[in-house]
Specification:
6-stranded antiparallel β-barrel; OB fold (Dihydrolipoamide Acetyltransferase, E2P); 22 strands; alpha+beta; elongated; 4 domains; 336 residues
């Protein structure tokens, strides 16, 4: 009878515990992970795409390049009519010669006045006048030097030159057009300084930073990349931020090429649907010895996959988690 009573108590306790436990369905973490391979749309762009402008106003007399041509730094792209600027250059050069002569004369006059002063043969007022004349002549010479330097620059600007090597993408003027100061005459794209840009979610950026390999896939080819920077501003509507990456090889796609950014993350991500919020903190429930344990994920963001630093075989609650609290006794209905 005692043995029978003991068995009955054990059975009753088990039934009571079962009644108090919360039924849940669990699955191993490694069965829930998102694939470690990630990809996102991306585009190649050039860091330098200058619109080359005319520095002076003049008529176009010659165009030396057309769309699609590659040019080197310093190559002449467009020639402008320089007649007026050459005339002004000659005038300023003559003015400089005149002011130089006047300066020489003013210096000799001051030297003579100083000698006369030693003999008391000249007044103080006349000596001061000679000194003033020298200062005026010196200032005038400096002024004419600057005018000539400006003329030289204007003459040099009669030839519109490439500031860097690249390919011509647009030519906006033709022979006979009148180009004004600041008007763009040629557009150029630098083919050497190019990078890849993509818009990624927070979790994607997180995994990209820990990626073992990063590639840009274009025209069935993979180009190795390395992360350069993350623009620390999120777009409100898309909830993405821009990342920029550099090519690790000399062979690169052309600027403007579109493709896929691909990378392998060092850690796998848990889908957002298995995250729970408790006490204003996102986390995940897993089962240890029939007890629900809430593992907080401080870096997790609502609605986005999250990195979970738990063993691959951890039993993650996938059904029944909405009524759970940390420390609740659970009853696993099934485990896959």
């Amino acid at each position: 009878m005692k043995a029978l009573a003991g068995s009955f108590l054990i059975l009753l306790t088990a039934l009571l515990n079962a009644a108090e436990s919360i039924p849940v369905t669990v699955k191993s973490l490694n069965q829930l992970w998102l694939p470690q391979q990630h990809d996102a749309p991306a585009q190649v762009f050039s860091l330098n795409t200058p619109g080359i402008s005319a520095e002076i106003s003049a008529t176009v007399i010659e165009t030396l390049v057309d769309v699609g041509e590659e040019v080197g730094q310093g190559d002449v792209l467009v020639k402008l009519d320089c007649s007026n600027y050459l005339v002004q250059q000659s005038i300023n050069r003559a003015s400089l010669e005149r002011s130089t002569s006047q300066l020489i004369f003013a210096r000799s006059q001051l030297a003579r006045a100083n000698n006369l002063k030693k003999k008391n043969s000249i007044s103080d007022e006349l000596l001061d006048q000679r000194r003033t004349e020298l200062k005026v002549a010196l200032a005038d010479k400096i002024l004419q030097e600057q005018n000539l330097a400006l003329s030289d620059m204007n003459v040099d600007d009669c030839e519109v030159k490439a500031p860097l090597a690249g390919v011509i993408t647009q030519r906006m003027v033709s022979i006979g057009d009148y180009a004004t100061t600041g008007q763009t005459v040629v557009s150029l794209v630098d083919l050497s300084a190019i990078e890849v840009e993509a818009d990624l979610l927070h979790a994607e950026i997180h995994s990209l930073k820990r990626a073992d390999e990063i590639f840009f896939e274009h025209a069935n080819r993979d180009f190795a990349l390395q992360l350069k920077t993350v623009v620390r501003v999120f777009d409100y509507q898309s909830a993405t931020a821009k990342v920029r990456l550099q090519f690790k090889q000399d062979t690169r796609p052309w600027p403007g090429s579109e493709g896929r950014l691909k990378w392998s993350s060092a850690k796998s991500l848990l889908p957002a649907e298995y995250l729970s919020r408790r006490e204003n903190q996102l986390g995940v429930f897993h089962v240890v010895d029939n007890v629900a344990v809430f593992a907080a994920l401080p870096q997790a963001i609502e609605g986005r996959p999250a990195i979970v630093d738990l063993p691959a075989g951890a039993s993650i609650v996938i059904e029944g988690r909405h009524r759970l609290n940390d420390g609740d006794v659970v009853r696993m209905l099934s485990e896959h």
